[in-house]
């Protein structure tokens, strides 16, 4: 799953070291437009729905955080 998320991120911008970056939102590596596209891609790829309550920096600052979010949302279905 983590690799699939990495592939989505790299398809959006392959100049970022997503493996080591832990402040993608806080450091504005991912802006609001990119985040919107990322959410759409994650929802489509993993057949999940990301609620507004889940759209917080803690869930998108790192690949690990995104993986945890996706896993949690899949478990809730």
From TrEMBL:
It holds the Pfam family PP-binding. Residues 1-74 form the Carrier domain. This is Acyl carrier protein.
